[in-house]
Design goal:
Helix content: 25-40%
Radius of gyration: 15 Å
CATH topology: Collagenase (Catalytic Domain)
Number of strands: 5
Strand order of the largest sheet: 2-1-3-5-4
Structural class: alpha/beta
Shape: globular
CATH architecture: 3-Layer(aba) Sandwich
Largest sheet: 5 strands, mixed
Strand content: 15-25%
CATH superfamily: Collagenase (Catalytic Domain)
Number of helices: 5
CATH class: Alpha Beta
Bound molecules: zinc ion
Length: 158
């Protein structure tokens, strides 16, 4: 197993907008840990993800508002982002709480997709396309924008 340590932080304006208090923050940490270590996730490539203090972490996961992410990553609105092979991952709060209809996933599955997709970038994976009609949508497809003729999926190995 390859250990990857990470730290989650939630921006103050996210806490305020969604009225997240202490247990709410811990709940988000908990979900992220579950998604990262899910049997559907990168554990299939031998990774184990461990939450640690910020300055000991290999990966910094930050939940931010769309406008903050646009400024940092220069991407389109309402997308999460992560630097390829890098340390920094930004989860779009509006998507975390609102999901993305075009993905065909319910909110829990969409959150899992979001975490696995962005961690995929950290692990050096680039975007994928829907391989053929009726295939499972790859996790490295930008599912937020739509899955084409693929079917919904959260497993990184499909
Ligand atoms: Zn991406």
């Amino acid at each position: 197993m390859t250990k990857k340590t990470y730290h989650v932080s939630i921006d103050d304006d996210v806490l305020k907008k969604y009225r997240i208090h202490n247990t709410g923050e811990r709940q988000i940490d908990f979900y992220i840990m579950i998604y990262l270590n899910s049997p559907d996730g990168w554990s299939q490539d031998g990774y184990f993800f461990e939450p640690v203090e910020k300055y000991k972490a290999d990966v910094w996961i930050r939940m931010s508002l769309s406008k903050t992410i646009e400024e940092i990553c220069g991407n389109s609105p309402m997308l999460s982002c992560a630097f390829l092979g890098g340390k920094h991952m930004y989860l779009c709060a509006e998507r975390w709480f609102g999901g993305a209809e075009n993905s065909g996933l319910d909110i829990q599955d969409y959150r899992q997709y979001m975490v696995s997709h962005e961690m995929g970038h950290i692990l050096g994976k680039e975007h994928a396309k829907c391989p053929r009609r009726g295939a499972k949508a790859p996790v490295m497809l930008q599912q937020t924008l739509g899955i084409g003729e693929c079917i919904p999926n959260t497993n990184v190995k499909e």
